[in-house]
Specification:
alpha+beta, Ubiquitin-like (UB roll), DNA polymerase, domain 1, five-stranded mixed sheet, 6 helices, 5 strands, elongated
Amino acid sequence: MTLPPCYIPPDDEDQPEDPTRRTFVIGSAAAAAAAFVSPLLGAPAATAEKTKSPPVNATKVTLHVNGKAHELTLDPRTTLLDALREQLDLTGTKKACDQGACGACTVLVDGRRVNSCLTLAVMHGGHRITTIEGLEANGRLHPVQAAFIRNDGFQCGYCTSGQICSAVALIKEGHATSDDEIREWMSGNICRCGAYEGIVAAVRDAAKNGGGNVPV
């Protein structure tokens, strides 16, 4: 058949889509989106309710940290390290090995150095706890802190808070009479950067400049 010159073949895109297929595709996509989004929209409320409820078998304890009393309700399994960092926001005490092997979490409990990752917070109600944040007084650094700065007793600084707390106790214990003694009694504090020469020099410097005379 001969077509007239003005004839234009129909474009497939101009043809109406199958309404049944279109409706099915849109409906399926909407249903899938609703199933995925609905739980997410309800999650914040559920999380908020969970946060408000105290942990199972929660125990009340009063921790005396850096001269201040803090009344906390804790899971009895909470370590002193986690209580300091997560409940009191004292993040100067570092979590590293979490096994008591590196000393980064060292704090002072009644003047004695303790690996806070190995002891439970509920065991220290009424004890006097000092962290790296509590060593300075009236805006002035503790002599051991100042000595670490003068002698470059750190590199990355992650272990430094534990090193300093351990050094404060070590000097008060009278174990800073020689470099060998300092190395031995600081051996529980690991510096992965290898700044041991500066650490020993800092402890020696602080011991000679009144580092053991400051109350903590």
